[in-house]
Structures are given as structure tokens and as C-alpha cells.
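Worked Example 4.2. Consider the chain below.
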Amino acid sequence: MKPSRETELSAPVKAFLVERGYDVNAEVKGLDIVARRGDEVIAVELKRTVSIALLRQAIKRRRVADAVYVAVPAPGGGVRNRVWRETAAVIRQLDLGLLTVTFLQYGAPRVDLAFHPGAAERRLNKRARRAIIREADGRSSDTNAGGSVGAEIMTAYREAALFVACCLKTLGPSSPRDVVAAGADEKAPAILGRNYYGWFNRTARGVYELDPAGETAIERYAELSRAMFGIIESRSDRGS
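Applying the procedure from the previous section yields the following C-alpha cells:
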């Protein structure tokens, strides 16, 4: 069986990394999958087929990650396939790692490590690397599928804005200070003022309420919103 979309590779690869002790996020600053364990940062690029575009993309990721892997469906005919062996040799020569995903007729897909990346010297882009870590740290959950194209991504900023929406849903019209006190990010005043997603309305100077678009967002991200409401409620209980 072969996947019809790259996103089908995401869940098994993420599970494979989580089992090995990594904190995993998908779609972080353009990277399909970012996995962190301690100070180590690895990137995984997901593709249905190996191509020059994939290899170029993976090589670029070496500027922000300690190790970069390519994850593709396992080859038809197995690893003895001559074309596959030659392709894998090229990936190895580029100092990239290789993961293969086998889609079984029954049961969960299986991920196999073909080889780790080589220890090539690389010049890290520390600024871009910090941005990736900051974005991953800003997410409380990982609801994205790696390899998504044109899909709406739950970024750290969107998650922070959703928390603000949940605060206004709970509190009613409120000031930015009240929203922060309810547990929202310290950037909540800027999020309310900018209103990037159109989720809020200013009813008076320094007072905001939830727009119907914000209500829709809460419903769209129902599972994450429920967790946020729980946080808001627990803070309210501690403060009472």
C-alpha cells in the first residue's frame, strides 16, 4: 500500500520519534517535522517520492538542525531494489538520514531507520534555529500534520490568540489585563489590538469582546479549546 498524501507519513513518523524520547511538532517554520531531545534538534522532511527538490530542501534544513532525515514510503520490492539502493546511497552521501514507512494492509504503518545522517561539518543559522525552537516552545499541543500543503497550521501565535478568545468567552467583555490574569500569554494586549484573525471587537477603550468569528474558531478547534477552558477555570478556582 502507498500513501495518497504526504500527510499520511506524518503520524507514524511522529510516533516513531516520540517513542525515542523526542518532543515532536509538525509544520514548524516550514519544516515538516521538528523533534527535540535536550539541546538536540532534528528535522524530518516527508515526501511520497525521492526527488531533487526533496534533497535540496533537506540539505537546506541542515543549517538549522543537528541532523536531517528524509522519510519516504518503503520501496516496492524491498531494499534489494537496485534503483532504491542507488537512491539510498545518494541520500547517504549527502549526509542525510533515511526513514522508510511501510503501510500494512492491517495495523499501523511501520517506520524503519535505514541509516543516520553522517557527521558532516555544517554552519548553523543560529537565528533561524532559535526561531524554530521558540515556535515549538510556544505550542502546547501538536495538532498539525507534517507535509501539509495549503492547510491551516496551528502556530504558536494562533494558539495564543485562541486562548485569548477562550478567555473572552469565559469572562465576557474584558480588558487585556483581565485576559492576562486569566492565564493568557503576556502578548495578549498586542494580540487583541492587532486582531489578526478578526476574532475580537473593541467595545470601549481598553475593553474587548468575542466576535462571532472567534466563536467559530473555538468550535473549529474544539479539543484544544476544551483544554484551554480547563486552564482558565483552574486559575479562577485558585484565585477565588
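The chain has two domains: 7-137, 156-239. The chain has a mean pLDDT of 88. Compare this with Example 4.1 before moving on.
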